[in-house]
Amino acid sequence: MKHLISTADVTREEAIRILDIAEEMREFGTREVKKLPALRGRTVVNLFFEDSTRTRISFEAAAKRLSADVINFSAKGSSVSKGESLKDTAQTLLAIGADAVVIRHPDSGAPARLAATDWIGLPIVNAGDGMHEHPTQALLDAFTLRRQVSLREGTAPHGKGLDGLKVAIVGDILHSRVARSNLWLLNSLGAEVTMVAPPTLLPVGADAWPCTISYDLDEVIASGVDALMMLRVQGERMHAAYFPNPREYSRYWGLDDARLKALDASGEETLIMHPGPMNRGLEISSAAADSPRSTVLDQVTNGVAVRMASLYMLLSGDLIKES
């Protein structure tokens, strides 16, 4: 059975293939009739044990544009809230005729467990699990980066990686599944990654990751980077004082108006990215979020295309490694 659980399991060739197909899917999204019959008769279940309007809607739009039927399952108000196990919930979905499951779960490893067992035997897509990974977010970030660089250079993106690009991932690395998925994928695609954060927001063992660690955002900006990927400060996952106060965090690690002006003065074509939702005024200022450098809205648009490509490849038997 084939799944998309972790970007660490996706080879460079597989990643480029997903991105290339996503380019075709994005072009279909600009047409008057946006639907493709590729998955007609298939049923995709969005199994969300954790709230995420943005990701759920993106997967729903992706499946529907491929002509699949979609069932949205929320843990709140369901049998899960009454104590039903993941296994029983999954087998219920199999019994109603699901062909693939997109799962978001607060516990790290839940999608991997669902994929590794013989409970349902369906393709599993990880839509975010705890502080572990969020592979389709990393894919859409890479897609956005590759597309923006190709537009700048006037070249076609197909078949290309991100070789030589310098990407800084900034902020709450400790709690971020987006940071982890991006790290593995960006490395596979040939980018150079720098993690920028206060020491308290870096996980134990981060010094062994294939990246450079920095505590100084101004120094990283001055050194020149192709993209700044700002991360949301995840207050809901913090149960201790990881930094003195929001004002100090913004001063040292936020992309504020002063740092935006420094970027503009540098002459660098640095892109500003954010996976959303944004805490404006904390990790990113409104001026930075809305500047011409910002790819935030492009990332949302590209998310549908990348998720279309992922679902298509999984359900057509064209991806990924056997788990």
Automatic annotation (TrEMBL):
Pathway: Pyrimidine metabolism; UMP biosynthesis via de novo pathway; (S)-dihydroorotate from bicarbonate: step 2/3
InterPro entries per record: Asp/Orn_carbamoyltranf_P-bd, Asp/Orn_carbamoylTrfase, Asp/Orn_carbamoylTrfase_sf, Asp_carbamoyltransf, Asp_carbamoyltransf_Asp/Orn-bd
Family annotation (PROSITE patterns): CARBAMOYLTRANSFERASE
Ranges of residues in domain Aspartate/ornithine carbamoyltransferase Asp/Orn-binding: 163-313
Residues noted as binding L-aspartate in the record, renumbered to the chain: K82, R177, R232
Record GO terms (molecular function): amino acid binding; aspartate carbamoyltransferase activity
Coiled-coil intervals, chain numbering: none
Gene Ontology biological-process entries: 'de novo' pyrimidine nucleobase biosynthetic process; 'de novo' UMP biosynthetic process; amino acid metabolic process
GO cellular component term, pick one: cytosol
UniProt domain Aspartate/ornithine carbamoyltransferase carbamoyl-P binding: residue ranges: 2-146
EC number(s) reported in the record: 2.1.3.2
Chain sites annotated for binding carbamoyl phosphate: R54, T55, R104, H134, Q137, G276, P277
Catalytic activity, reaction form: carbamoyl phosphate + L-aspartate = N-carbamoyl-L-aspartate + phosphate + H(+)
Keywords: Pyrimidine biosynthesis, Transferase
Function text: Catalyzes the condensation of carbamoyl phosphate and aspartate to form carbamoyl aspartate and inorganic phosphate, the committed step in the de novo pyrimidine nucleotide biosynthesis pathway.
Record's subunit section: Heterododecamer (2C3:3R2) of six catalytic PyrB chains organized as two trimers (C3), and six regulatory PyrI chains organized as three dimers (R2).
Protein family: Belongs to the aspartate/ornithine carbamoyltransferase superfamily. ATCase family.
Name of the molecule in the record: Aspartate carbamoyltransferase
